[in-house]
């Protein structure tokens, strides 16, 4: 049995779907007629209706009503700056945890954190972690660093021209910085580092972005920088690209782990032994013991850092507060640590890639805005505090899941809460 | 200037937030009183109201109405199997792309794909990719493999006991498999592989999960397997854990890239030169040239595979169809390739970690169910087709963004569509 | 100072090497005449002499004598099966550590381990670890797994053909296995796993290789397998390659970490508190504390696993015993763990990629053969024991360096031992 | 067959080695007596003889003579600064390739490169690449960057103290730099970057190291920096460590790939179509086609960058020239690229982690010194040129192996050259 049996089983399953002849046709391109509806940038009742006329082949009026409900249809244009081809809204349930006490550099006070998810047990688990943390005096947080990067790429004939280009950029950095910053009120270009691979040069352009998450801001600023280079640089260039797929935008990368992208926050709490026992139903030693195994698992499976489920907390918070849910892919990396402190348990998370804003993106949409308001973190001057809330929330989730797995409760929680479906 | 200036700047920013004395207090634990509302598992009008009474310190009645709107409050219990501490629903706008022609092993036909996002330009970009693909005859797709893994860990005194444990498991695999499968109608344990690190053994338990994404299913099945081991295995065990943080659940990992987790799908299309020029506004050669640079960027920044923005398409589709948005963290890895085929452009994505289900999770909620119905992929027998749709959608996004960056349009699209906010 | 100053400094340094005009010429291709000496496969006194005639432009007679010394020149042909264009031998100093007590599945007894290096302090450090381990009763070792992989790649027109190819291979696996194994007396093809990326298929062919390291053996066997496929498979193939750069041969990879390549060995010892204090000059707690920090460092810098300096021990042992020193690149990954056991310190290494043989490669050369004889591990039936010795040796190095850093002695050791040069 | 059969086979193999009772004893610690010979730092004829008296249990007089040959024993003390417990020298055969024409920023001319290896076919393969490169006008090289890092770690009670520590370091950077540089004539501390993980701070200390590889130099300098901090810093520290296992010393890491460690060099050549056909026996298109597959393999197996076998060239050159062979583990990462240039083939390597010196380490030993002299690169002022030679040599190896695999010759070469053994 040289081929693993599950691979053979899978092959049979695939095979069962077709006889050679038909499937060949099935997978071939087809030039059957089709018509695409005209793209819609500004949503209106009638534009939505047009789409649903098209969708009625598969979807029912009930489906239409679930997305294009009367409240949504009262003013579809409210969503026009955030989406195209609008057909309604999906309703993601929101639960709340808290009060979560945060003793932070930027966030300070007792917060209720809205979390949007359809995964049963998630909110309950984070709520438990929040209770344990608050009971232990709250979570200390600090924004350690910020900087969103864009990494345009420039292609030359050879290494010599690439080198001369780097020299030119270094000498011209002030006007280039001015060009970039001319496009934005809040963005500042704080660092440019060239990375050369023979005839190709990437520029790691790092910006602070005020209270916005800032991905668009840095794209536009970097584009201006690139166009300024293209207009003035005397070195012959074969091509330039606004992004060399180097920045880690929307994807986990070791660059992000090593140098950070977005806001880097650390959060910690020392749970008392009593809280671990009474609230979490386990012991400090049991959590530490599991922590060793979990750390080993993270190494052996090739993760970026070591943590349990940052993605759960981040996705729930990002969605509830109008952040970009796709950024979970890059944000869900970092480090969770647990260590003894006398009889108590020190727990920390350090997250180098939190992408959040208290302005911009989806933050102005009504229900997302409400999410930020629940936190008291909508608008100017709140971006850093929001990042600290994100990290503190993730720490609650780490504490709760580690306790649950250490105590053997993990499965039971999911069984009880999810099996009703 | 041995310390990089942006680090010094950041330090000054942090420093400006406090004078040493006050901040020390600010970051210390506090034992001020607090009260947590009773956890709510079954949502009702009154349970929601109770939460909002608490939230009114920060949130306004308008905020309450945005989340706990009349339609949501008509029957809050509909969400009880998916969330705890329910306070309302966040409304994420949904746009639609299509028809997207898919010539797949499992998905076959012209699909309209609902995408939930607040990122302007995203839907327009994917729609463009869908148009180009369909114009070129559609996207071929195939589910190549499936298997959701859970990786319990077992701790022993020493290597010798760990080795004897592995032997016991191998000999007892049939009853263990039976124990695992007794908990589930659809889940099948298809492979168990031990990984030994001295006195610790991880078992990579791989399941097929029918039409569900299956994370809960495999947790419950694996728990039964572990309890069966714990009850019968004669080797002295120091501890066992349902998950050794090895499976890559909710996080990007090289294990997932190498062996797959969830459903592995490959999707491809050969775009005609004419479509590249007329629809995408660039040339085959320009896209290939950029592809080389983007590939280099992915290597140099330490990504898992090489792709542009799977996360955008996945997050939008997952949210619109009731999938677990946190799984974007693990799903957004894989490979995008572009190669010349005569004058035309072959484009493919291969995604080893798609976590979707046509049943279970959030798929039964009204608006999420509508999302699946738009695709015609709700319910039993549709899970594999849904995974193929996910990959085909991501391929559309890859095509569009690569074309945009190659043509220099990327920034303009974001500028035009997002700057209205 | 947007550009980091060390980058500017570096640029000035580079800049100082040229004025634009001259350097352009300096880096251009040149078509000046040159003559290459005829390649030599079978070394002789006269072939060596011819090379040195050529080398005398730069090298002196003393240099010639250092490499082509009289003992080497007594029979240059002894090296002919291991090198081409032979000009002499480099003399790497060898030190010995031990007795190192190994209580292993395959290696059993008190070993003296030869280590070849030019790095001062290395042998002394490993010797200290060996003494501490032996004093604590010796190191337990077990070969857990073995399998050298080759991963040929096959390219097809499209995914459909790739799928049909996989099916063909699965059905034909027995004759393919026979073809592969017909080339070798000791190699066995134990597993074949296909990995599909759209139209490209990699076959992970895993072999046991008897007592040889086996890289050539698996190359030749896999070539036979591929040629058998090429001769008989009816699916149209665009190309096939003996290696798709997937196997991790001669390079660190997560595939190797996850699935192993070569021999996987775990080794452990529990050091008594007394040994830690008296022999290592530190305390169990100090070593554990440093272990936590070192583990964090390994995560944050993106290493493959977590260990201190496997490469030192491996390179020294590989060179001294005729193994392939280039394999250090792939072998130097894995896990070192330290944990308290009562008052004592449990230490383990698990190394998934040890590439060693007690036959083949450089093992028959006189001084390399002597290295194996010192271990008592030359020839048939000793490959597994040799792998266990490698892991045990690395464990000694881990213990010693962790103790040195924990105690603050690390620098002093290097200062004292290396500064004489 | 839920457990893969090769795992079951392996288990049986392991099982066959013991009956439960005996093996338990076999793997237990033993307190049998043992005596370790006194460590020897200064080698002499009599110290070597003492060791061999001990080794005669396993090794024969012939073995002794192979290592402790008359030439080596003429003056064993010559090795005392490079090794402890000296018992002789291992003789690694050296082959030479060239002339290799290098048109470099630092290396310039036609070089003969000595390579020490016991892997048949390696020298022949690199020689072929050198011939093809020189025939095409030679390889352009440039040292792009240099900087060896050490990363001490500092542990505090909490995040607040960690933050205050970072501030203190930033303010005191000048005296700290002076303390570090006071220990070395050639080392310069060019950058310090703090990385904070809650209460733990790593300082990435980056040095230029003149013409030495510099690992000891930066250790000693960083130790002085740390001791200066420890003596003067008013923030309470729980511990500090000279190395937080963060620098990537002796191991592959993404930090090294992203930021470089040691010397970063890029090397390139454009091979004419004629050379590809006549010298390499394949075509430009065939090499490009294989390059695409090889790149995919590197992604899917989780390598650091994408290259074929840098480790072979590096190990052979490092050993032949007295470099630290263990550094192959960190140096063997980076990027190989091949692209069409009209009808010709552009090939480049960019290697961010070359660790070489023209002084220090093993460079003064007689036969290693001869290796450097063959290159004309011994002594002060040659370190950068040596790094360029290393990259150029690796490029030759990449060209040759890619051509061989593309042409289907790879296996044959190994078969012919290695099978004589």
Automatic annotation (TrEMBL), chains A, B, C, D:
Broad enzyme group: oxidoreductase
This protein's UniProt keywords: NADP, Oxidoreductase
EC number: 1.1.1.34
GO biological process, one term: coenzyme A metabolic process
InterPro entries the UniProt entry points to: HMG_CoA_Rdtase, HMG_CoA_Rdtase_cat_sf, HMG_CoA_Rdtase_CS, HMG_CoA_Rdtase_eu_arc, HMG_CoA_Rdtase_NAD(P)-bd_sf, HMG_CoA_Rdtase_sub-bd_dom_sf
MF GO annotations: hydroxymethylglutaryl-CoA reductase (NADPH) activity
Family, as annotated: Belongs to the HMG-CoA reductase family.
Protein name: hydroxymethylglutaryl-CoA reductase (NADPH)
């Amino acid at each position: 049995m040289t081929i693993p049996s599950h691979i053979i089983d899978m092959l049979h399953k695939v095979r069962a779907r077709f006889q050679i002849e038909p499937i060949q046709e099935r997978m071939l391109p087809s030039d059957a007629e089709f018509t695409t509806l005209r793209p819609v940038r500004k949503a209106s009742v009638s534009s939505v209706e047009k789409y649903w006329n098209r969708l009625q082949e598969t979807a029912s009026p009930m489906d239409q009503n679930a997305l294009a409900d009367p409240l949504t249809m009262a003013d579809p244009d409210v969503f026009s700056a955030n989406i195209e081809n609008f057909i309604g809204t999906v309703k993601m349930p929101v639960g709340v945890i808290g009060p979560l006490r945060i003793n932070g550099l930027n966030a300070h006070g007792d917060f209720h954190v809205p979390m949007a998810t359809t995964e049963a047990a998630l909110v309950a688990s984070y709520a438990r972690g929040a209770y344990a943390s608050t009971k232990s005096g709250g979570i200390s947080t600090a924004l350690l660093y910020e900087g969103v990067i864009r990494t345009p790429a420039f292609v030359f004939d050879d290494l010599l021209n690439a080198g001369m280009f780097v020299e030119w950029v270094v000498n011209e950095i002030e006007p280039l910085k001015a060009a970039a910053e001319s496009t934005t009120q809040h963005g500042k270009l704080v660092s440019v580092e060239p990375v050369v691979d023979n005839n190709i040069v990437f520029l790691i352009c790092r910006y602070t972005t005020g209270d916005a998450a800032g991905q668009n801001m840095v794209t536009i600023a970097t584009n201006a920088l690139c166009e300024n280079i293209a207009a003035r640089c005397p070195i012959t260039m074969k091509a330039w690209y606004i992004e060399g797929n180097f920045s880690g935008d929307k994807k986990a990368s070791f660059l992000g782990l090593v140098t950070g992208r977005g806001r880097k926050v650390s959060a910690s709490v020392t749970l008392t032994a009593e809280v671990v026992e009474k609230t979490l139903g386990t012991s400090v030693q049991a959590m530490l013991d599991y922590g060793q195994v979990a750390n080993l698992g993270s190494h052996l499976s090739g993760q970026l850092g070591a943590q349990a489920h940052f993605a759960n907390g981040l996705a729930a918070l990002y969605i509830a507060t109008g952040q970009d849910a796709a950024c979970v892919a890059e944000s869900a990396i970092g480090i969770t640590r647990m260590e003894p402190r006398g009889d108590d348990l020190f727990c920390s998370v350090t997250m180098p890639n939190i992408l959040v804003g208290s302005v911009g993106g989806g933050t102005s949409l009504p229900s997302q805005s409400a999410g930020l308001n629940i936190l008291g973190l909508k608008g100017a001057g709140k971006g850093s505090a929001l990042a600290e809330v994100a990290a503190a929330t993730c720490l609650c989730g780490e504490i709760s899941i580690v306790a649950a797995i250490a105590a053997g409760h993990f499965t039971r929680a999911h069984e009880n809460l999810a099996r009703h479906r």
